[in-house]
Design brief:
Blueprint lengths: L7 H27 L6 H12 L21 H7 L3 H12 L7 H4 L7 H7 L51 E2 L5 H4 L7 H14 L22 E2 L8 E2 L5 H6 L4 H15 L16 H7 L3 E2 L2
Parallel strand pairs: 1-2, 3-4
Length: about 300
């Protein structure tokens, strides 16, 4: 297949067409350069916006008016210029029971700037119910001097809280006195009075004033204020007392009570206090201390 070859007349026509197109292009360029296209105002503004979009800042205008930070809603705070994060902080603070009691409290809101504070400081008005109560000033006046005739009579002394102590030569019955009577002894207060009564109950009564020295810390000269009646001592029937009754006595306790219990079951009733000498846990001193407290029936 042979390639297309234009004739001489066709070649002349193509040359003429190309020359005409080139002429039109030259004329168009010349006209455009002489009369540039005018850009419309909206298009010009769009171009400026595209050019300055990286550094153009939109100015935001805020309002300034009186407000109470305890009741202002989010719209009000935004109008005043509070950023959204500060508005959320105010709402959270109020939701937890927080209150703004004075205008200076608004200054402590996280994120508050000097610019915002200086603009709003004079427009903050706190309702009276949120303000602190101001105490009334006290007035002090010097009391008038009181003459001897105008003085109130002296109240009688409370003998329960401050008992009157015994005078020299007075005595108290050790086995009958209660704590009130014992506290009248010089040097004896509530603590030692209770200890004396408690030890008396354990013993069954005191046989001698010297037994008080068995109480730790007892004054040594307490005997001059006391008398003892041994006839009121409560005795223990050795042959019929239970083991618990024997154990509770301060002079017997566990080991001596166990020896008495074993003797009763192995050899029968004890006839006298002399039978205690045959028991291993009893010494002569123990037997003499127990003599006023034991009976053998």
């Amino acid at each position: 297949m042979a390639f297309f070859e234009p004739t001489s007349s066709e070649r002349r026509g193509l040359l003429v067409l190309c020359a005409a197109l080139l002429l039109v292009l030259i004329v168009a360029v010349a006209v455009f350069m002489r009369h540039p296209r005018e850009v419309s105002v909206p298009e010009q503004r769009k171009a400026e916006t595209r050019t300055n979009r990286y550094y153009a800042v939109m100015e935001r205008r805020f309002e300034t008016f009186d407000f109470d930070p305890n009741t202002a809603d989010s719209t009000t705070l935004l109008r005043l210029g509070f950023p959204p994060f500060m508005v959320r902080g105010v709402y959270k603070y109020r939701a937890k029971g927080g209150r703004y009691h004075e205008p200076a409290d608004v200054k402590r809101i996280p994120g508050m700037t000097n610019e915002l504070w200086l603009r709003l400081a004079s427009h903050i008005h706190i309702d009276k119910k949120y303000q602190y109560v101001t105490p009334e000033p006290r007035s002090y006046s010097r009391p008038e001097p009181v003459t001897f005739e105008e003085r109130e009579p002296q109240q009688p002394r409370d003998t329960i809280l401050h008992p009157v102590k015994l005078q020299e030569g007075s005595v108290v019955a050790l086995n009958e006195a209660d704590t009130t009577a014992l506290k009248k002894i010089p040097g004896i207060g509530s603590y030692y009075a209770r200890r004396i009564v408690y030890y008396r109950q354990q013993l069954g009564g005191y046989a001698s004033v010297s037994q008080l020295q068995e109480i730790e810390g007892m004054p040594e000269d307490i005997g001059q204020w006391l008398t003892v009646d041994p006839s009121s001592i409560r005795r223990i029937d050795v042959n019929h007392a239970t083991k618990n009754q024997l154990v509770r006595h301060p002079y017997l306790r566990v080991y001596r009570a166990q020896d008495i219990w074993n003797y009763r079951h192995n050899q029968g009733p004890l006839q006298s206090i002399d039978d205690l000498r045959s028991l291993p846990s009893f010494t002569e001193e123990d037997i003499e201390r127990l003599r006023p407290y034991l009976e053998f029936k």
